[in-house]
Specification:
Endonuclease III, domain 1, Endonuclease Iii, domain 2, about 140 residues, mainly alpha, about 0% strand, 7 helices
Length: about 140
């Protein structure tokens, strides 16, 4: 079933090892604690955050490539890696918005603030965007 996913060999190995640990150490239950989750094979901050946000209803920001790019482009954060982005976003976004902010940033990154050709002319937050300002500065400076 996972053969269509990239890196399926290592993912399959992690699933088997994770399953063994869940059975032996956690009575076949997935732990709720973030640190326990990330200690499991193949579970990083993003996966643990998605699980807590969506399944446990613990507001978190799972940082994927879209969230990382958009958050840095629009100036919400100025970070160098996803883990720092998550920490910063979770410290500045009000708790009541954390759950939906994750989804809104992903969707904005997928459909508007694309990696290669962002659709700035269609963007509803273009006036607040640092990326647009820096791109305009490059044009003026040229």
């Amino acid at each position: 079933m996972i053969k269509t996913i990239g890196l399926y060999n290592s993912k399959a190995k992690n699933i088997v090892n994770l399953s063994k640990i869940l059975i032996q150490k956690y009575n076949s239950k997935i732990p709720h604690d973030f640190n326990l989750l990330t200690s499991l094979p193949g579970v990083g901050n993003k996966t643990a955050s998605v699980y807590q946000n969506e399944i446990l209803n613990i507001p978190k920001i799972a940082v994927d490539t879209h969230v990382f790019r958009v958050s840095n482009r629009i100036g919400l954060v100025k970070t160098k890696n996803p883990d720092d982005t998550q920490k910063k976003l979770e410290s500045i976004i009000p708790k009541k918005w954390l759950k939906s902010a994750h989804h809104l940033l992903i969707l904005h990154g997928r459909y508007t603030c694309k990696s290669q050709k962002p659709l700035c002319n269609e963007c509803v937050i273009v006036k607040q965007c640092n990326y647009t300002k820096s791109e305009n500065q490059k044009i003026i400076s040229s």
